[in-house]
Specification:
Order of helices and strands of chain A: HEEHEEHEHHEEHHHEHEEEEH
Distance between the termini of chain A: 38 Å
Number of strands of chain A: 12
Oligomer: heterodimer
Helix content of chain B: 55-70%
Largest sheet of chain A: 9 strands, mixed
Largest sheet of chain B: 2 strands, antiparallel
Number of helices of chain B: 31
Shape of chain B: flat
Structural class of chain B: mainly alpha
Strand content of chain B: under 5%
Number of strands of chain B: 6
Strand content of chain A: 5-15%
Radius of gyration of chain A: 22 Å
Structural class of chain A: alpha/beta
Largest interface: A-B, 77 and 82 residues
Strand order of the largest sheet of chain B: 1-2
C-alpha cells in the first residue's frame, strides 16, 4: 500500500528537496509548514539479555537482598568495604554498583533518574518474546506490526521530514522502530554512502531522471540522507580532532551514542534514536572473585561511562534530549548455583536528560521478602514500562495520542511518575 | 553532468522542472487530498493485455527468482501457458544437478528434528543430559557421542567456574602438565569427541594453536561441533539461497517462500533453529501446491509453530489442579491465546474476518494439550489429554464438543473452509504475484475457486495465472522486488557461482530482510512501500556494485559477455530488463569519461563489471 503519508513526503521532496543542500536546513525557503530543525530528541537504549537490575542499582537497605545473594550481593556503603567494592550511596536505601561511578556526577546534578521495579506485566521469561513485547509496546500481543518508537513520532503528514528523523544504530531496522514513519538503520555514519564517488554520481542521475516515481523520490531521499551523513561525520571528525580527550570508552554502545550525539549536534532533524547493547544474560559467573568484579562489573562500567560521555558530548544540547534505558525483564532475586542469576521479572529504567527531574529513585519498591516476590522468585513490577515511555513521549515529544501509542493500553497522565520537570 | 548552469540558476531551473512535474501530476494530488489511497494502477490497466514478448518478460520475472538463459529459452520454446502449467507440477521437472551437488554439502537439510538434536546437540540439551533430565538417544554410537559431549560441556562450565574463583592463583602443576602432554600428542587422528575433550582442558592460547594445526576439513567439523545450533541455522539459510538461485522448480521455491512467510516462524526463538529445517521441508514445501487445510493442519501440529506461538505450553486452566501436577514456578500457567489469535488473524480469516475476542479464547481452549513431546530429544507433536480443556466451546457460532484432539481439528476444518479465509488467502497471493492492490474481480475469481475446490492451492494459482489481470499492463512491473528477490535475481542475472551462501545472507541482513529471522508472526510484507526506503536503496546499490565486481566473498561470476554481446545487450536479451535509453546513456558517458578512471568503486573493476553493477543497481532492476 503506497500510503498517503508516503506520497506526500515524496511530493514535498520532489518539489523542494532537489537542490544540492537539503532544503529543510535553509529555513527561509520553508515557510510555516516547516518545523524547526532543532528538535526534541528521545533516545532509547535496549540492554538485550535481561540485565541484573538488582546488582545495578543495589537495594542495600533491603536486608532480604543480602539473604538472597550470599555470593553476589554488593556490600552496602557503610559496611567498611573498600570504596570500589561497595555500593555508591544514592539515597540511603539504593546505591549504584561501584562500576557506575561514571554516572554519579549525573545523579548529583539531578539529571539522572531511576525508575525501579519497572517492566512488563506479561509473565513470559523468554528473551525473544519479552524483547518483542517491549519493542512493540504490546505485552502479550505478537502480531502488532510496528514498534512504539515509530508510533512515538508525530504523524508528519503534509510536513517536511528529515530523512534522518528516526535512526537506529546498527545494520538492520529493529522491531522498535518499524512502522509507517520512515526510519533508517545506520551502522556507521561514515560508511553510509555509495561505494565510489563516480558510481554515486551515476546512480544519483539515473534515479533523478527515472520515470518511476516511487524509486525516483526514494532515490532523492537516499542521496539527501547520504549528504547529511557525510556532513555530520565530517563535522564530528573535525570536532574529534579538536577534542582529543577521547571521553567515550571503547565498545559498541559508546560508538552508537557518539554517532547519535553527532546527529543531534548537527541539527539535521533527528527526533528519535535507538541503540542496543547485548551481553547481559549472566546465568554463569555474573561476578568474579569478589561481587564488585567480573562480567557484570565490566559491562556496567562500559555502560555507565558511555552514557556519561554522551552527556558530556552533548553539552548544552542535553536540554533537548531525553534518554531512557530498558531491558526485557529482570533476573531472579535469588542467586543460582553457578554464581549467576536466571530469568526474572521486574527491572529498572534509567532516565536522563536536561528536562528530567533526576537525583531520585521513582516507583514503589515492592520488597524482596518471601511474600513480596513475584511468583516467589522475582522482583514484582510496580511501574508498567509503558507509563514511563508514555510520559516521555507525551511530555517531551509532544505526542499526546493516548490510545494509538500502545494499542490496547490507554496512556493515562494519572499514572505518570512525573519524571519530566519541564511542561 | 547535467546543465552547466552555475549556483542559483541551476537550482532554480531544477525547481521549475519539478514544479512542472508536480502540476502535471495534479489529478493524482487532488485524488490524494480527497482522502483516498492512490490506486497503484487504474482498474482499466488490468484489462489491457500484454503482447507476447512482454508476456514472456513478465512471467520470466514474476514467476521466478529472476530470468536466466534457461528460463527465457524454455518460455520461448513452449510458450507462457505451458511453461506455467509445468511449473505448477514441480515433480515433473528434473531438478538441477548443480543444485543437488551444492545441497549435498549440508547434511542437516536431510535430517529429522530428532536426528538434528543428536547430530548437533545444543547446550541446553547437553546440560539436561548431565543433570539426568533428558533422555539419551537409543543408538549406542550416538548415545556415546552425546554422553561425551555432555561431559565436555559440564567440564567446560566447571572449568570456567574454577577459573573465576581463582583468577589470581596460578594454575596447578598437574593441570599444566596434563594439557602439555595432550598438546604433545596433538589433535590429529583423534575422533571429534576426543578432540573436544582435549580442547576443553587447554588454555585459550594452546587451544588456538591446536586448532590451527588441524587440516581444514577437521577444523570445519570441529567448529560445527562447538557451535552446533549455528551450523543448523547456516544450513537452513544456505539451502534457501541455493534453491532460489539454482532450482529449476522456481515456482515451487516461490510458493515455499510464500507459505513459510505466511506461516512464519523465526529462528530468533532458539529451538526454532532446529525445528525450521523439517518445518520447511515436510510441512511447507510438501503442501505448497496441496490442499490449504492439509497445509494448515501440518503447521498446527508442527513443533516449529507450537513453540513459536507458545501453544506447547497452553493448558487448560483446570489442569494444574489435577492429581500429580504440582505448580512449579516455571510450569505452564494456563491458557495461552497467542496461537489462537494468530491462527485466525494471520493464517486464515484475516483481520476483520469475522471473529471476536471470545472466539480467540474459545479456540485457545480447543488447542489446549497440543504440545511438543519433550520426553526424547527432538520430539515431535504430542497431544496430552490431561492438559486439554474438555468442556464444550463455541467457535464462530458453531458448537465444538467432540472432546480431545478432535476439538482442534474441527476448528482447523472450520477455518480452512471459511469464505473469509478464501478471500484472505486469495488477496495475499494476488498481492504477491499480481499487484499491491489487485483488482477485486481477480480476488473474487480466486476465492470462488478456493471454495469450489475445497481450498486446492494449485487450482487457485491456475485461476490467478490464467486470468486476464495477471497478464495485463496493470500487473506488468507493478512490484518492487523484495530484498531476497533482488539479491537472487542479481545472482541469476550474472550466472554467478555461490560457493559460500552465508555471504549473501549477510547482505540480506543489511537490506532489511534477514532470512528466517522475521521476528513477528506477520512475516514480511509483500507490498512495495515496505521495501522502498532510503537506507535500503543505498544498500541495494552497494550490493549491485559489490556483486558485479566480485567483491562479495564466495560469490563469483565471469564477466565475459556471451556471443560478443555488450552488457546492455545481455541485460535486455537475457535479464529481460527494459533498461531505459537515458539510463544507458548516463552509464555509458560516465564509464567512457577518462577523468573518472580513478574513481571506480573498486580498483581493477572491469568495464563489464561497472556496467553490470550500475545496471543491477538501477531503478529498472528493482522492479519485476
Amino acid at each position: 500500500m503506497y500510503s498517503r503519508r508516503c506520497f506526500m513526503r515524496g511530493a514535498a521532496l520532489a518539489m523542494f528537496g532537489a537542490g544540492s543542500v537539503p532544503l529543510w536546513l535553509g529555513r527561509a525557503a520553508q515557510g510555516a509548514a516547516m518545523p524547526s530543525s532543532r528538535k526534541k530528541v528521545l533516545v532509547a537504549i535496549f540492554q538485550r539479555g535481561a540485565a541484573d537490575g538488582l546488582n545495578t542499582v543495589v537495594p542495600f537497605g533491603d536486608r532480604d537482598y543480602y539473604k538472597l545473594r550470599p555470593n553476589l550481593a554488593i556490600p552496602a556503603p557503610s559496611r567498611g568495604a573498600a570504596l570500589d567494592e561497595a555500593a555508591l550511596d544514592l539515597d540511603g536505601f539504593f546505591g549504584f554498583h561501584p562500576s557506575l561511578a561514571g554516572l554519579k556526577p549525573l545523579w548529583d546534578a539531578k539529571e539522572l533518574a531511576i525508575v525501579n521495579a519497572a517492566g512488563s506485566p506479561d509473565p513470559t521469561r523468554s528473551h525473544f518474546d519479552a524483547q518483542d513485547y517491549m519493542e512493540s509496546g504490546t505485552p502479550g500481543v505478537k502480531s502488532t506490526r510496528d514498534g512504539w518508537l515509530n508510533r512515538a513520532l508525530v504523524d508528519a503528514e503534509g510536513h517536511f521530514v528529515s530523512p534522518v528523523r528516526a535512526v537506529a544504530m546498527g545494520s538492520a531496522l529493529p522491531r522498535i522502530l518499524r512502522g509507517p514513519e520512515p526510519a533508517v538503520a545506520i551502522d556507521r555514519l561514515e560508511d553510509f554512502q555509495v561505494r565510489g564517488r563516480q558510481a554515486e554520481g551515476v546512480f544519483s542521475s539515473i534515479y533523478g531522471d527515472s520515470a518511476d516515481a516511487l524509486l525516483r523520490n526514494t532515490g532523492k531521499e537516499a542521496f539527501d540522507a547520504i549528504r547529511i551523513a557525510k556532513q555530520v561525520s565530517a563535522s564530528a571528525a573535525r570536532q574529534g580532532m579538536n577534542d582529543p580527550n577521547g571521553s567515550y570508552p571503547n565498545g559498541p554502545l559508546a560508538r552508537s551514542l557518539r554517532q547519535i550525539a553527532a546527529l543531534i549536534k548537527a541539527d539535521v532533524g533527528l527526533e528519535v534514536a535507538f541503540a542496543d547493547v547485548g551481553g547481559w544474560d549472566h546465568h554463569v559467573n555474573e561476578v568474579g572473585v569478589r561481587p564488585a568484579t567480573g562480567q557484570l562489573a565490566n559491562l556496567l562500567r562500559n555502560f555507565g561511562d558511555s552514557l556519561a560521555a554522551f552527556r558530556r558530548d552533548l553539552g548544552d544540547r542535553f536540554e533537548d534530549v531525553v534518554l531512557v534505558t530498558m531491558s526485557e525483564f529482570g533476573r531472579t532475586a535469588r542467586e543460582n548455583g553457578t554464581r549467576g542469576t536466571d530469568h526474572g521479572h521486574a527491572n529498572l529504567m534509567f532516565v536522563t536528560g536536561g528536562p528530567i527531574a533526576g537525583g531520585k529513585v521513582y516507583g514503589d519498591w515492592p520488597g524482596l521478602g518471601d511474600g513480596q516476590l513475584y511468583e516467589r522468585r522475582d522482583l514484582a513490577v510496580t511501574t508498567d514500562f509503558r507509563d514511563v515511555l508514555g510520559e516521555l513521549i507525551s511530555e517531551h515529544l509532544g505526542n499526546r495520542d493516548r490510545t494509538g501509542l500502545f494499542p490496547g493500553y490507554t496512556v493515562s497522565p494519572a499514572r505518570f511518575r512525573r519524571l519530566y520537570a519541564v511542561s | 553532468m547535467q546543465w552547466k548552469l552555475s549556483g542559483p540558476w541551476r537550482a532554480c531551473s531544477r525547481i521549475r522542472f519539478e514544479v512542472l512535474a508536480a502540476i502535471l501530476a495534479t489529478p493524482l494530488i487532488l485524488f490524494v487530498l480527497a482522502g483516498e489511497e492512490p490506486a497503484g494502477r487504474s482498474e482499466a490497466a488490468f484489462h489491457r493485455p500484454l503482447d507476447e514478448a512482454r508476456q514472456v518478460e513478465h512471467v520470466a520475472n514474476r514467476l521466478t527468482f529472476g530470468p536466466t538463459a534457461n528460463v527465457v529459452a524454455s518460455l520461448r520454446a513452449i510458450g507462457v501457458r505451458k511453461w506455467i502449467e509445468l511449473q505448477l507440477q514441480p515433480e515433473r521437472i528434473p531438478e538441477s544437478t548443480l543444485l543437488e551437488a551444492k545441497l549435498a554439502a549440508y547434511p542437516a537439510l536431510r535430517m529429522s528434528t530428532a536426528e538434528l538434536a543428536v547430530a548437533y546437540p545444543n547446550r541446553q540439551y547437553l546440560r539436561a543430559v548431565s543433570r539426568g533430565a533428558a533422555a539419551l538417544p537409543a543408538d549406542p554410537a550416538e548415545r556415546e557421542k552425546v554422553e561425551a559431549l555432555a561431559k565436555v560441556q559440564a567440564e567446560r562450565e566447571r572449568g570456567f567456574l574454577r577459573q573465576a574463583r581463582s583468577r589470581t592463583q596460578p594454575a596447578s602443576r598437574e593441570s599444566t602438565a596434563r594439557s602439555k602432554k595432550e598438546m604433545a600428542g596433538g589433535l590429529n587422528g583423534t575422533s571429534g569427541t576426543l578432540q573436544l575433550a582435549a580442547l576443553a582442558s587447554m588454555t585459550p592460547d594452546e587451544r588456538a594453536a591446536a586448532v590451527r594445526a588441524l587440516p581444514p576439513a577437521e577444523r570445519k567439523a570441529l567448529a560445527e561441533s562447538v557451535r552446533p545450533a549455528l551450523t543448523v541455522q547456516a544450513s537452513l539459510v544456505a539451502g534457501k539461497i541455493l534453491r532460489a538461485s539454482y532450482s529449476e522448480r522456481q515456482l515451487e521455491e516461490l510458493m515455499t517462500d510464500f507459505w513459510f512467510n505466511h506461516f512464519n516462524v523465526s529462528v530468533k526463538k532458539e529451538a526454532d533453529r532446529y525445528y525450521s529445517i523439517p518445518y520447511e521441508r515436510d510441512v511447507i514445501r510438501k503442501h505448497a501446491f496441496g490442499k490449504f487445510e492439509d497445509l494448515l493442519t501440518a503447521t498446527a501440529e508442527s513443533p516449529a509453530m507450537l513453540y513459536y506461538l507458545d501453544n506447547f505450553q497452553s493448558v487448560s486452566p483446570d489442569a494444574r489442579f489435577r492429581r500429580g501436577m504440582q505448580r512449579a514456578p516455571r510450569a505452564p500457567r494456563g491458557l495461552n491465546e497467542n496461537y489462537a489469535r494468530e491462527l485466525m488473524e494471520l493464517h486464515t480469516l484475516g483481520v476483520g474476518g469475522g471473529y471476536t475476542q471470545k472466539d480467540v479464547t474459545e479456540v485457545a481452549r480447543c488447542f489446549t494439550g497440543w504440545t511438543i513431546d519433550r520426553r526424547t530429544p527432538g520430539g515431535g507433536f504430542r497431544f496430552v489429554p490431561q492438559l486439554h480443556d474438555s468442556k464444550a466451546k463455541t467457535v464462530l457460532g458453531k458448537k465444538i464438543d467432540a472432546g480431545g484432539m478432535e476439538d482442534g481439528l474441527r476448528v482447523l476444518h472450520l477455518l480452512a473452509n471459511h469464505p473469509s479465509t478464501a478471500k484472505f488467502i486469495s488477496t495475499k497471493l494476488a498481492e504477491r504475484f499480481v499487484a499491491d492492490e489487485p483488482p477485486a474481480s481477480l480476488v473474487e475469481a480466486m476465492s470462488a475457486t478456493f471454495l469450489r475446490t475445497g481450498g486446492d492451492i494449485r487450482e487457485v494459482l491456475r485461476t490467478m495465472f490464467a486470468s486476464e489481470e495477471f497478464l495485463s499492463e496493470g500487473a506488468y512491473r507493478a512490484k518492487v522486488k523484495q530484498p531476497f528477490e533482488m539479491v537472487v535475481s542479481a545472482v541469476r542475472a550474472l550466472n554467478a557461482d555461490i560457493a559460500q551462501p552465508v555471504a549473501l545472507a549477510r547482505v540480506l541482513d543489511r537490506l532489511g530482510q534477514p532470512l528466517y529471522r522475521k521476528q513477528e508472526p506477520t512475516g514480511y510484507s509483500a507490498l512495495n512501500s515496505e521495501w522502498v526506503n532510503s537506507a535500503a536503496l543505498v544498500e541495494r546499490m552497494n550490493l549491485a556494485l559489490g556483486l558485479a565486481a566480485n567483491q562479495i566473498r564466495g560469490v563469483r561470476w565471469k564477466d565475459i559477455p556471451e556471443n560478443g554481446q555488450t552488457t546492455v545487450e545481455m541485460a535486455r536479451s537475457r535479464w529481460l530488463l527494459p533498461v531505459s535509453e537515458s539510463t544507458v546513456e548516463r552509464i555509458g558517458k560516465a564509464i567512457d569519461d577518462p577523468a573518472q578512471e580513478q574513481l571506480r568503486p573498486f580498483r581493477g573493476a572491469t568495464e563489464a563489471q561497472m556496467w553490470a553493477g550500475l545496471l543491477l543497481g538501477s531503478p529498472e532492476f528493482q522492479r519485476h
